[in-house]
Design brief:
Order of helices and strands: EEHHHHEEEHEHEEHH
Helix content: 25-40%
CATH architecture: 3-Layer(aba) Sandwich
Strand content: 25-35%
Number of strands: 8
Number of helices: 8
Structural class: alpha+beta
Distance between the termini: 31 Å
CATH topology: Aminopeptidase
Oligomer: single chain
CATH class: Alpha Beta
CATH superfamily: Gcn5-related N-acetyltransferase (GNAT)
Amino acid sequence: MIGDGPPGWPAELSDGPVLLRPYRRTDAADWSVVRRRNQAWLAPWESAPPGPWHELNSPDAFRYLYRDQRRQARHGESMPFAVCLVEDGAQRFVGHLNIGNIVRRAFCSGYAGYWVDSAVAGRGVVPTALALAVDHAFAAGGLHRIEVNIRPENLPSRRVVEKLGFREEAYHPRYMHIDGAWRDHIGYALTSEEVLVEGGLLARWRRLRTTTH
């Protein structure tokens, strides 16, 4: 935990080489390089305003996104993390994870969204990052429920939440406008009671990795 803003924010979280930290202004160039290189990997699954991918993912576009993320985080509406790999003592930016649309009081819920550089896909970065963020949101963040909504065709992303034990709850027809059309989504969810008794989602993920290797 670092700083003292809204519950659970700002924060740095890590497990092995995977590091989640708040974004910095200096991330603009690295973010843009990764996003532009991964257009074919990311564009089919993301909602985005109209415009060329190259421009929407420029360093200037990042600066607007950075200001918006900081505003939402300061108001306790989201927890946006840069996902990095720490290799030989250096941080390499590889993706994004956000706990957003946070509603407190009697609901205490948020939505998780994430993406990762295709160059590190399959290395356990996303499930580790998601487990870290969910545990943090349930504990220091004071949330009770995390939801994830994924297009049915996005099998890699669905495998991430299913292997972590997220419960499939609903099918949402024409849920979000993505890649030129209103796309169906599958709704997954997890509550704090389902993982805290096991020591948290990260502990569940570690046990799973041990049994499958």
